[in-house]
Design brief:
3 domains, 5-stranded antiparallel beta sheet, alpha+beta, Immunoglobulin-like, 3 helices
Length: about 280
């Protein structure tokens, strides 16, 4: 009896109740370009009743009802901003200011894109740890990933609540662990499972330990030859010149410089040639 008194005014007319906003299709999950309907309804009030729909607190549509039948608002989800927040307001000629409903938000279900499978390296050695990352850049969250070696699953499902890659760690224990890998991504969007590109791990070739030693010895020998060649004009030739000049002066006395230069150079280079041929003859 007290509830009935609260719903009526002094002149016997019913007071307007807060309306309820519900999706006609029964779910708040939507996809892009989908048509949806929202029902706004007050259980009590004095007709006629005016229903007003708001999106992000902005009025987008108005319906007038001569009785207490629901107001149906038809919408199209054209972009991410169309998911809400939605509210409706009911007004009649008795209640001042009207009454507001609950709020609703749609959840946009976007199909996932083809995931990308990657790793920091495509070559590994036996006994080495490697990682594999799988990421689908588009699609509504959460996204569930699975990893495969050939057609065999090698990991439990990995559900990602954020736009981040799913990562697994692999131990390359034997040659059978090398080969082609793939991953799979799926979300709540129906019939929308995508497989990634193939990623192949190959066995890294081990370099011979003697190879760096051979290269080092070759470089040392090359530097020795270059150093010897550079030493000829600066040290060996002046030494031979001084020796020959001294011996010439002691045996013949003062000699013309012009006449002595040609045989002097000839003797010097002849002696150097003999010196360089000694190792070859031995």
């Amino acid at each position: 009896m007290s509830q009935q008194i609260q719903k009526t005014t002094t002149n016997g007319k019913e007071m307007l109740s807060n309306p309820r906003l519900i999706p006609v299709q029964g779910t708040l999950n939507v996809v892009m370009n989908q048509n949806v309907s929202l029902s706004c309804h007050s259980d009590s009030g004095t007709p006629p009743v005016r229903y007003i729909l708001f999106k992000h607190n902005q009025k987008i549509s108005t319906l007038n009802r001569p009785d207490l039948t629901p107001g149906l608002f038809n919408l199209t989800i054209n972009s991410a901003s169309d998911v809400g927040e939605y509210k409706c307001k009911a007004e009649d000629n008795i209640s001042g200011g009207g009454k507001y409903s609950n709020s609703l938000n749609f959840t946009l279900k976007e199909p996932i894109s083809k995931p990308m499978l990657s790793s920091p390296t495509s070559q590994a050695k036996e006994g080495q740890n490697v990682t594999l990352s799988c990421l689908s850049e588009n699609g509504s969250l959460p996204i569930t990933y699975m990893f495969f070696k050939g057609r065999k699953s090698i990991s439990p499902p990995v559900k990602m609540q954020k736009r981040e890659a799913a990562v697994i760690f692999l131990f390359m224990n034997s040659s059978s662990d090398f080969g082609t890998y793939k991953c799979r991504a799926e979300n709540s969007f129906r019939n929308n499972t995508k497989y990634s590109n193939s990623f192949n791990f190959t066995l890294a070739e081990e370099r011979s330990h003697s190879q760096p030693l051979i290269i080092s010895l070759g470089l040392i020998l090359l530097l020795f030859i270059i150093g010897f060649a550079l030493a000829i004009p600066f040290f060996i030739i002046p030494s031979y010149k001084a020796k020959i000049f001294k011996s010439t002066r002691s045996s013949t006395g003062f000699t013309s410089t012009t006449n002595a230069e040609e045989p002097e150079d000839y003797v010097i280079y002849t002696e150097i040639g003999k010196f360089m041929l000694l190792p070859m003859q031995s």
